[in-house]
């Protein structure tokens, strides 16, 4: 009889095991990033808590929300905040307030409180890459500067102010500088994404 009870207490939780999965990598823009945490369990949860942790060992809690699925929408406060919705087998959230130095591994922590038994599972983690907005001149800025230079040149010719070779030299130097700056910014943005793949691989090996 005792052995039977022990087996019941062991095998029931195993049959109701909760599993959480996450995408390998997501990229955010303007401080926001979408993240989906999928979960599977034989239970149909009614009350649960969703938390998001930052770092390889998940020691920094970014946001947490207790949700009754009769009202599946949630929002959190803070410099970095989360808002989202829980539907069948998944949590879709938007993480806002992130900066470039918040690029890291993020783990979903899901707890089911009702119906019993209590279940908890943590996802395998997602590399969240936050793109900083580089202070680079746009094509419109470049054309605007060129237009201003040409206007200044015409005014100088009209008023006989300054030699023409000097004005041409200023126009050429300004245009070349803007073009080189745009190329350098695009190169930095593309080079910044490369280390993220090796970072996630090293996390998974750990």
From TrEMBL:
Any one biological process term the GO annotation gives: regulation of T cell proliferation
Q: What name appears for this protein in its UniProt entry?
A: Immunoglobulin V-set domain-containing protein
Boundaries of each Immunoglobulin V-set domain copy? 26-128
Q: Which residues form a coiled coil?
A: none
Per UniProt, what is the membrane topology?
Single-pass type I membrane protein
Please give the PANTHER family that the UniProt record associates with this protein. Answer: CYTOTOXIC T-LYMPHOCYTE PROTEIN, CYTOTOXIC T-LYMPHOCYTE PROTEIN 4
Q: Which InterPro entries match?
A: CTLA4/CD28, Ig-like_dom_sf, Ig-like_fold, Ig_V-set
Q: What is the lineage of its organism?
A: Eukaryota, Metazoa, Chordata, Craniata, Vertebrata
Pfam families named in the record: V-set
Per UniProt, the keywords (alphabetical) are:
Disulfide bond, Glycoprotein, Immunoglobulin domain, Membrane, Signal, Transmembrane, Transmembrane helix
Per the UniProt entry, the signal peptide is 1-17
Q: Tell me where in or outside the cell this protein is found.
A: Membrane
């Amino acid at each position: 009889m005792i052995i039977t009870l022990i087996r019941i207490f062991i095998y029931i939780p195993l049959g109701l095991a909760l599993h959480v999965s996450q995408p390998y990598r997501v990229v955010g823009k303007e401080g926001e990033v979408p993240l989906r945490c999928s979960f599977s369990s034989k239970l149909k949860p009614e009350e649960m808590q969703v938390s998001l942790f930052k770092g390889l060992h998940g020691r920094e809690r970014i946001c947490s929300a207790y949700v009754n699925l009769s009202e599946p929408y949630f929002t959190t406060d803070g410099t970095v905040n989360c808002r989202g919705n829980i539907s069948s087998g998944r949590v879709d959230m938007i993480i806002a307030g992130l900066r470039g130095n918040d690029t890291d591994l993020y783990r979903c922590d899901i707890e089911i409180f009702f119906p019993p038994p209590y279940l908890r599972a943590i996802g395998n983690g997602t590399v969240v890459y936050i793109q900083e907005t580089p202070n680079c001149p746009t094509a419109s800025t470049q054309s605007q500067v060129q237009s201003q230079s040409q206007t200044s040149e015409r005014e100088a010719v009209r008023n006989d102010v300054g030699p023409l070779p000097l004005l041409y030299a200023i126009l050429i130097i300004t245009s070349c500088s803007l073009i080189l700056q745009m190329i350098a910014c695009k190169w930095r943005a593309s080079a910044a994404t490369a280390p993220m793949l090796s970072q996630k691989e090293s996390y998974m090996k750990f």
